[in-house]
Amino acid sequence: MDVYLKKIIIKNFRRFGEEGVEVVFNKGVNAIIGENNCGKSALIDAIRIAFSTVPYKKDIFFNKSDFHINNKGEVAQSAQLDLHLEDVPQYLIEIWDPEHPTQGEFHIKFYKTKTPNGVEKVKSTAWGGKSEGNPLSPDTFEAMEFAFLGALRDAESEMKPSRSSKLANLLSSVTNNEESRNDLVHILADAQGNILQKPQIQKAKEIINSNLLAIEQDILRQEIDIGLVEPRFESIAASLRAWLKPRWFYISKDDPLYTTVLKKCEELLCLECVQQDANGLHIDIGRFLSKIDKKDQQLKNQLIQLVNYSFELYQNGLGYNNLLFMSTVLGDMAIEKSGICYNLFLIEEPEAHLHPQLQELIHNFFESRHKASDTIQVIYTSHSPTLVSRIGVESINLLYEKNRKIQCLPLAKTAMDDTDKIYLKKYLDVTKSQLFFAKGILFVEGICEALLLPEMARLLERPLDKYAVEIVNINGVAFKPFAKLLTTAESSSCFTKAAIITDDDRCTDKDDKDTYISKDLDYDSDITDVIEKLKKGKPSDRFKNIEELCEGTEIELQNATKTLEYAISLHDNNILLILQAIESAFPRVGKALSDKVNSLSDITEKAICIWLFIQARNDSKGKVAQALCDLIQKQCDELKKGNTVDKPFEVPEYIKKAIYCVTEA
């Protein structure tokens, strides 16, 4: 059985209060996401503390400052970590649950005590299973290993030669029997013997003994001998170092190798291994060496010498050093070791110092390492929409602040069904994934709303960036999966301020002859019948389904009567601006529309003409929205300067309500 951490419950630890927070994990790769200061690092540290509480070698300590402080300034007197594991083998008897044979759990409680002289200290008690009092021993935790890569990390130092370096750990795992270790030790002992016979060593010993004799004369007549540190496997492991070998090496025309390499590339038909310029060539040595055979051993040796030119770790970029660290740790974890049934790799912000394409590759690497070894579980924190878009929603825990408390929403526990998850897996791209890091979310149907809402919010003096509000353009009307993503199956409570802005799409049912308005109508059609149908029309079934979906949740639903363009045009101040925008996109026919609208006196008739015009040219309505956006932006800029604006744009009431909803304190 391959153990993995299924759940952790944290109470009174740092930002997590008395009510506690429950975080659920899956086998394999898991992500913890959320805005800054929502407890991601605290969660990782809680796991680290839990797995290093009992062993003699602690990775991190629980301090007095770790106790939660509530809104009243009261410091908790105790804290508790409850860890639940799945696929637990029976031999981990201290945590194994006989009532549920695949499960296991252990708990750690921290509390304050005072010494006789009044000094306050933190003590802890740990137990396995459900009942407090069942002792835990290092044996249990020695079967479960973990590694940690922090946000403020120094991968270079972690890879430097030392007994505890990641390279030393990897070598220990690779040479996992006494015979293979002794083989390395014997090689080192032979090399040391040869070194000790060198005249330089003998000369150094001679100088010291000569000086000793001069000091001691015939009184002591002491002598020393010189040797190297006793050859041991641990010394070999502690001496390992790594460096980066550049892929391409330069050979100038003056170098005798230039002609030899070029000739050999032509002979082997591998000219793709070289790139020439006026002064020499670059050679992909690794690729080239794989093509030449033993008869060219001399050339091979010369090129290997060239490969010895390398960059030290401190000369590498931070991103590549992090990749080296992660590759070494996961390489060590993938090796099957006697007595180890679980490997946990905790990483804070694996995206640090990596560009988006490398972020995608590192996530794929995590997934492949887990598939290669089921004993590996990766849990990382992230602010990266790129990583969030790559990992399935079922593997994400969202930490967020609500009602002054930090809470967790495991996305696997939301109201989504399988169809919703499949949809979101396809459509949660890098842009839409930014919603997880927002304070508020505005879901909109298309590009027009996405362009106009930020400028409308500026007019209302509620700029969306100031309030950390994200606009999510659904590019259609499929709001259901996103709405379910924000709610839990049990409580239907949203994790953040959210609003859906949509059209009610009345008068679109072809079967209802009394209210259906044909899409073939244009601005110059007879609109007498249209006015009556709009008055009698009712919101579409599609809108009613969204309305029902939002009932009982904290998702605000705000709708336009018919469409956005119609709602905007129902305000006198907006008519001039939207006609200007239309004329900039459609100079000739836009002028004809303006003439028609200006000839009308009723605001509803004007709004209908503008709406029908844009509906008939639906494919180009984005141009109109962009032009209108520019005009509103100019008004915003003038108002910001303190200037008066003639006929300021009127934000439709339903959009006002949605903006206020997501920008409230």
Automatic annotation (TrEMBL):
Residues 4-388 form the Endonuclease GajA/Old nuclease/RecF-like AAA domain. Keywords: Endonuclease, Hydrolase, Nuclease. It holds the Pfam family OLD-like_TOPRIM. InterPro entries: AAA_GajA/Old/RecF-like, Bact_Antivir_Def_Nuclease, P-loop_NTPase, TOPRIM_OLD. One of its GO terms (molecular function) is endonuclease activity. CDD domains: TOPRIM_OLD (cd01026). Residues 436-505 form the OLD protein-like TOPRIM domain. The keyword Nuclease applies. Gene3D superfamilies: P-loop containing nucleotide triphosphate hydrolases. PANTHER family: ATP/GTP PHOSPHATASE (PTHR43581), ATP_GTP PHOSPHATASE (PTHR43581:SF4). This is Putative ATP-dependent endonuclease of the OLD family. It comes from Propionispira arboris.
